[in-house]
Amino acid sequence: MKIEKIKALLEAVRDTDIEEISISNGDERAGFKRSVACAPLNTAPAPEKSSFSQEKSAVPLVDMPYGKILHIHSPMVGTFYRNLPASDTPLVKEGDFVSEGQKVGIIEAMRIIKEIDSPMSGKIVKVLIQDAQPVEYGQPIFEVESQAKSEGS
């Protein structure tokens, strides 16, 4: 596989949410995974570095009333999986409490894996898509009952 083709492909996915890509051409194979910088454990992340921006969701992420039912949407077209590839246990199930940024599932499309993070803290009320089912961009996957933070936190 020519380096020009690989460079062109990497350039095409540079400004997307794609985190991992595999390329195969006959017996030649190449794989790339985007690295994610981690903040030190003793510091809080800056608000503008949110793992789920308002541009990706129609749901406002500030001043959510306690008990309001909101949705976690699919970030891309693909196949939804409730568990990680090497596990038989779902990441979350109905009745579980999730924190903002917690992994709740994955979407796979053409061997590209995109992890789905919860944009809010709350209780998973309903799983709307079954495991290994196709999803569309923006399609609701989970119903979540929001959990407002207390005044002192």
Description:
- 7% of the residues lie in helices and 34% in strands.
- The chain is mainly β.
- The protein has two domains: 3-33, no CATH class; 52-146, Beta Barrel (OB fold (Dihydrolipoamide Acetyltransferase, E2P)), CATH 2.40.50.
- The chain is elongated and about 55 Å long.
- The N and C termini lie far apart (53 Å).
Number of strands: 10
What level of helicity do the residues show? under 10%
Identify the overall geometry.
elongated
Largest sheet: 4 strands, antiparallel
CATH architecture of the largest domain: Beta Barrel
Provide the CATH top-level class of the largest domain: Mainly Beta
Main-sheet strand order equals 3-10-8-5
Strand content: 25-35%
Rg on CA atoms, Å: 17 Å
Count of runs of 4 or more consecutive helical residues: 1
What is the CA–CA distance across the termini?
A: 53 Å
Relevant CATH superfamily of the largest domain: RNA polymerase II/Efflux pump adaptor protein, barrel-sandwich hybrid domain
Q: What class would the helix/strand composition place it in?
A: mainly beta
> What is the residue-averaged pLDDT?
74
Instruction: Provide the low-confidence segments as ranges.
Output: 36-64, 149-153
Order of helices and strands: HEEEEEEEEEE
Number of domains: 2
According to CATH, the fold-level topology of the largest domain is OB fold (Dihydrolipoamide Acetyltransferase, E2P)
